[in-house]
Amino acid sequence: MNSGPTRNLDPPTTESISRPNQLLSDWRICVLALIALWAVIYMAGLSRPALLDDADTVHAEAAREMVQRHDWVTLYANGIRYLEKAPLMYWGVAASYTLFGVNEWSTRLPLMLGVLAMILSTYGLGRWALGGEGGFDSGLVLATALGPYLFTRFLIPDVPVGLWLTLTFWLFLVSLEQQKLEQPKPARWTCWGLAAVCALNVLTKGLIGLVFPAGAIGLYLLLTGNLRHLLRLRLLSSTVVFFAIAAPWHILAALRNPAQGQVRGFLWFYFVNEHILRFLNKRVPRDYDTVPLLLFWALLVLWLIPWTVFLPQSVREVPRRWREFRMQMTRRQRAYLLFSLWSLVIVGFFSLSTRQEYYTIPAIPAMALLVGGWLQRERTSAGDSRERRSGRISSGVLLAAGVIMAVVGFALLMFSKAPAPGTDLSDLLRKHPQDYALSFGHFLDLTPQAMGAFRVPLFGFSVAFLLGTLANWILRRRGRAGAGNAALVAMMVVLLACVRIAFGIFSPILSSKDLAMTIREQYRPGDQIVVIGLYENASSLNFYTGIPLHSLRAPGGNMWYGTQFPGAPRVFETQASFVEMWKGPQRVFLWAEEDEPPALQGLVRYEVARGGGKIIFSNRPTTPASR
Questions:
Q1: Closest Cα to residue 512, out of 61, 41, 46?
Q2: Looking at residues 294-298, what average pLDDT do you find?
Q3: What is the mean pLDDT of residues 518-527?
Q4: Residue 182, CB half-sphere, CA atoms under 13 Å: how many?
Q5: Domain edge (last residue) among 478, 505, 532
Q6: Of 477, 505, 533, at which residue does a domain stop?
Q7: Strands 528-532, 588-592: parallel, antiparallel or unpaired by DSSP?
Q8: Residues 142, 238 share a domain
Q9: Which ranges in 19-131 belong to alpha helices (H)?
Q10: What is d(CA 587, CA 530) in angstroms, rounded to the nearest whole number?
Q11: Using CB atoms within 10 A of its CB, is residue 145 exposed (0-12), middle (13-18) or buried (19+)?
Q12: Neighbour-count burial of 576, counting CB atoms closer than 10 A to its CB (0-12 exposed, 13-18 middle, 19+ buried)
């Protein structure tokens, strides 16, 4: 018998039948508690620090120019066509700019709302599949996990991808239960909703919005011997819904950006270059790096901290035998099988492709659901059950990690010294430019001397980790698993606050905002800004000044493709054209990462500002009139 049709909707808990009014009250309390936790963690410091160079301000600038140009089809950044990405995230930020103006918090607001929606969707799916307590625990795990917080410090679409996947797999599980003998097909709203969220996912990050659901759902139906369920999903009308949502932007983008002469059009660049060739590590230009495979797998576990220690026993609940797949599985078993496939498909896909540290973030809701379901089972089990013993062992492992972290943290505090007032953090770093193509590459520059600048967050992080893991261990040994979870939640609130403070201290290294503000004060119409290196290395100059940047380097990076179109602004300068510009009548600001850049050898230059390891030179002296 396959796992699809079932008459047993196996309600989540007995309590949900006997006390429906209390269940409704609990539902409201759970949602309010998750919203409050999200607000404390994610909304605090929404306007700080400054937006960062590279992806953060490149994406923010694309949204700003969308509003400025009144063009919601073709993305532009630095005045150049920017056709690499799907548009939904940019639409959200552009809408925020339209409502609230262009600033840091309006840039981050849509992404933070996406985090809230993902948390609540995870809670809803967990509640439906695992019971009220399992759903709430799943929401807590996701809201306090390290990875989603880290990768919402800059503007990338991976959290919304996680949201759409959560809704997609929820609707798929619902479709399995709606399939009954007297109702051979799931409800229209279920099938059309499934098509709609897949379409929104495609508009968020391209074809993986289809690849990930198709891979996980296809494997599920294959393992359970229920492939014919695909035919019951109202394929004709669902396909119409999918294309009605996903196709218009792609069609308009292709029409407005056709092939022109030697320049291949949008369809080749977006689908072939950005999807197929990137997967094969042959994208043009190749201006990115990839995380080593073993590190990539290890980081997936790291992003779930501190709940990682409960993952092994959570995975043990996943059906693993062929006979189990073909049995009449319960709702919980079906969900656990799908959650595991959800994670495996994402990790497996990027194991065969190029990968960044954050590419596994869309799998975190699945892992949170696996852990949340086990935490619920542990809390409701008998006093000396296998679950209770396993929880105590895991809490001991976590305590050991807390002790090690505290020892390392206190050692760094003991041997590091606070830098003298006015010290630029960049002077204490050791640069590793070969690693900067990775999203956290700059953090490898930290040295023991530089850690002195982080004494406050380091102390808070070390103490919180030690006390939180100790409290969790004590409470679980006393049989109070729920209180142990609460201790870990409180610990993560403090830890993530310390991460936010440390990120703010480090942000001048990653952002050129202060330099941009200096240029804005001195800028006069006709002045030019030149960057030594790629545009994205100093893209915050463009965002905060609104002035297009020139790049002193060979064509490449995010601007390469857009500059191939006829009539595109010239943004790449050669040494000869730069010298001519420098000696010309207009003022030129030059952004550099070294005191004496070779490009200025033999040229008169004046230092305008410096900070964060970056310097602004000019070919004209600063005068009182230009201040």
A1: 61
A2: 86
A3: 93
A4: 1
A5: 505
A6: 505
A7: parallel
A8: yes
A9: 20-38, 55-69, 88-100, 104-130
A10: 11
A11: buried
A12: exposed
Q: Please check whether residues 478 and 439 belong to one and the same domain.
A: yes
> CA triplet 538, 293, 366: central angle to 5 degrees?
90
For the chain, the residue count is 627
SS3 assignment, position 584: coil
Q: Which residue type is seen at 330? A: T
pTM (global) more than 0.85: yes
Domain shared by 117 and 228, yes or no: yes
SS3 13: coil
pLDDT at 320 over 90: no
Side-chain-facing half-sphere of 483: CA atoms under 13 Å: 10
Same domain? For 197 and 122 the reply is yes
CA angle 525, 529, 533 (to 5 degrees): 165
Question: Does residue 532 share a domain with residue 456?
Answer: no
Neighbours of 440 (CB within 10 A): 15
Question: How far apart, in Å, are the Cα atoms of 18 and each of 13, 14, 506?
Answer: 9, 7, 54
Range of the domain at 258: 15-47+103-380
Query: What residue type is assigned to position 241 of the chain?
Result: V
The pLDDT score that the predictor gives to residue 422 is 75
Q: Is 548 helix (H, G, I), strand (E, B) or coil?
A: coil
So what's the pLDDT on residue 443?
A: 59
Half-sphere exposure of 370 (CA within 13 A, CB side): 28
pLDDT at 444 over 80: no
23-54 pLDDT, tens digit per residue, is 434 788 999 999 999 999 999 888 889 999 98
Total domains present in the chain: 3
Mean pLDDT of the chain: 88
426 and 500 share a domain? yes
Token match 């695909």: residue? 230
The answer to whether the beta carbons of residues 34 and 139 sit under 8 Å apart is yes
Q: Give the residues across from 617 on adjacent strands.
A: 590, 607
Query: Residues with Cβ < 8 Å from 532, sequence gap 6 or more?
Result: 552, 553, 590, 591, 592, 593, 597, 599
Give the Cα-Cα-Cα angle 138, 135, 142 (nearest 5 degrees).
20
Longest CA pairwise span in the chain (Å): 85
449 burial class (0-12, 13-18, 19+ CB within 10 angstroms)? middle
- For residue 533, the tally of other CB atoms under 10 A from its CB is 17
